[in-house]
Amino acid sequence: xxxxxxxxxxxxxxxxxxxxxxxxxxxxxxxxxxxxxxxxxxxxxxxxxxxxxxxxxxxxxxxxxxxxxxxxxxxxxxxxxxxxxxxxxxxxxxxxxxxxxxxxxxxxxxxxxxxxxxxxxxxxxxxxxxxxxxxxxxxxxxxxxxxxxxxxxxxxxxxxxxxxxxxxxxxxxxxxxxxxxxxxxxxxxxxxxxxxxxxxxxxxxxxxxxxxxxxxxxxxxxxxxxxxxxxxxxxxxxxxxxxxxxxxxxxxxxxxxxxxxxxxxxxxx
Length: 269
Hints:
Blueprint: H1 6-19, H2 39-51, H3 57-70, H4 75-80, E1 92-94, E2 97-98, H5 99-113, H6 119-125, H7 134-149, H8 169-179, H9 204-213, H10 223-236, H11 245-257, H12 265-268
Helix pairs in contact: 1-11, 2-8, 5-7, 9-11
């Protein structure tokens, strides 16, 4: 991949600045972790909100609202007091994520919080921030504990299993919230991972937008594409590459909302 053209770099900077504002919060799942002040509550809310963050944002936020209502808006207490065991395993949480999956997830989190005061401490303890790919190291360690805690049964609905290929979109999004520290949308409460080592949360829309801009030429939305795209974005902002997640999101939304008979700026570029 060649360097980023000047007009594309300028577009990315402009769009990131336009989207990374407090107005972004109200309609995005980030509003749920931002609703809490205790670190453990923020961490749990970030992970769970990101876990169900696929599909329409309105539906995601509706189902996240219902999820945290089940916890009486006290996620850490709900986890540590094992409130999740009283849920009907067949209850739907969001699309193909059910209460039985939530129970597996929260059993795993309870085990982690029994070992470390915060997930940030857990991340530091496993040396996630010292790795080239902290998100994948974190998920590997979490998945091992989740599996052990649930009788040796892994749950792909909780965390991805194929770490060689998964883009880890949801965990990378949660880490953006927890690590980036500009104080606008993202919260920056974690210190175990430097924001320079974050990776772009890659989904279909972000991938398509990046390809339209000519900054990603790989077709698959997999780990390799995440690494390639993040490397390109690091060339623009080495200390904070996922800042441009806002730009790719904003450009993609604009292109999808435009009259299909008109060429979007993405198509022209």
